[in-house]
């Protein structure tokens, strides 16, 4: 039993590993539409400097100059089903054109000037914080050699004014560099592409549709991975039952359970986070004005009903004693252990099970669990 449990644990770990791998087989929406989130952020942004910000994010440092957005987007589809959006590949090509040494130098210069501004502003804050102290030192007649402050009281105002002039000059230079960068042909082409609302709308619709169906595709591939394993283990179990291979029957039965557990787990996961929940959220938001918490009530009702349906399915189809008995009687096998027995034997020589029951209509002996009496043909369901 310990060996069987260890085997079950080992197989269960590998089953979940396989499920995780196959669930990523189909390309996910973010990889299929890699430009969507960045483009969406640009469309919704309201800052006046958003054109420069998205250009800046597209220009990689000189160290990574060989970086290619379009190739990186295409690489995401390698080893996966599905393809990357052609519009996003075009988006990547625009970004690649922006990523040239001249633009990199402009960005580096802007960053350098921004750093200078930050340092000057820090100096101004220090001067303002120390002004009261330097003023007291001056009133007390303390010499500058003994002061710990950076500038004297008489120089503080002049220093602040000079620093503010430097900040204004640097900001003007930065504005000129930004305008120079945005005026480049590759920048204008990129911004015009971003402002094409019709193209963006088609990307947004495609991304939303892909996101809606992606959980269903994942569950479909996971089922495709598990169902052959379940079918194989049940086939081995039935074969071992017929041949009275007790150990093989036990192991294959455990394997069937091991394979069923992830399938049921993934089914409930799909019901909780998949296409159905998205549909319910959208429906409730539309009909009831955003009372999304009602989805929880729906699941409290829905999940137990589905669980009950699964139990009834196994009771009626998979483990139905009447169906098993009919198959075994046709093959002259014991109704309980499925071993071969002579046709008219009342007791199984392998397990000792009594094969017959009295018909409630004609009181003759007929097979247990079969729906009709073999002598009078009357239904045995009420017996």
Automatic annotation (TrEMBL):
Q: Which residues form a coiled coil?
A: 103-187
Q: Which UniProt keywords apply?
A: Coiled coil, Membrane, Transmembrane, Transmembrane helix
Enumerate the transmembrane spans.
Answer: 212-232, 244-265, 277-306
By what name is this protein known?
DZANK-type domain-containing protein
- Protein species of origin: Coleofasciculus chthonoplastes PCC 7420
Its organism's taxonomic lineage begins at: Bacteria, Bacillati, Cyanobacteriota, Cyanophyceae, Coleofasciculales
């Amino acid at each position: 039993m310990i060996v069987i449990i260890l085997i079950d644990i080992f197989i269960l770990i590998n089953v979940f590993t396989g499920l995780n791998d196959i669930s990523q087989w189909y390309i996910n929406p973010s990889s299929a539409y890699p430009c969507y989130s960045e483009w969406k952020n640009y469309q919704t942004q309201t800052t006046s400097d958003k054109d420069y910000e998205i250009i800046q994010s597209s220009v990689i440092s000189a160290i990574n100059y060989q970086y290619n957005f379009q190739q990186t987007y295409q690489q995401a589809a390698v080893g996966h089903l599905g393809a990357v959006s052609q519009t996003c590949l075009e988006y990547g090509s625009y970004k690649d054109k922006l990523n040239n040494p001249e633009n990199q130098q402009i960005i580096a210069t802007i960053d350098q000037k921004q750093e200078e501004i930050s340092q000057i502003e820090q100096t101004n804050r220090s001067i303002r914080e120390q002004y009261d102290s330097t003023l007291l030192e001056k009133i007390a007649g303390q010499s500058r050699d003994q002061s710990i402050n950076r500038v004297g009281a008489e120089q503080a105002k002049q220093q602040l004014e000079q620093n503010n002039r430097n900040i204004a000059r640097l900001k003007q230079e930065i504005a000129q560099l930004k305008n120079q960068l945005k005026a480049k042909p590759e920048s204008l082409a990129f911004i015009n592409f971003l402002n094409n609302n019709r193209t963006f709308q088609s990307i947004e619709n495609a991304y939303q549709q892909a996101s809606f169906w992606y959980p269903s595709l994942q569950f479909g591939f996971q089922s495709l991975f598990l169902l052959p394993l379940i079918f194989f283990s049940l086939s081995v179990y039935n074969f071992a039952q017929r041949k009275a291979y007790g150990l093989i029957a036990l192991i294959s039965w455990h394997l069937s359970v091991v394979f069923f557990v992830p399938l049921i787990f993934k089914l409930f996961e799909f019901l909780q986070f998949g296409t159905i929940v998205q549909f319910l959220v959208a429906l409730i938001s539309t009909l009831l004005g955003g009372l999304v918490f009602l989805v929880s009530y729906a699941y409290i009702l829905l999940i137990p009903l589905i669980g009950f349906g699964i139990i009834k399915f196994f009771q009626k189809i998979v483990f139905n004693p009447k169906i098993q008995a009919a198959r075994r009687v046709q093959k002259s096998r014991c109704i309980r252990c499925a071993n071969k027995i002579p046709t008219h034997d009342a007791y199984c020589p392998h397990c000792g099970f009594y094969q017959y029951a009295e018909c409630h209509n004609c009181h003759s002996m007929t097979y247990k669990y079969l729906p009709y009496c073999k002598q009078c043909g009357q239904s045995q369901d009420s017996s």
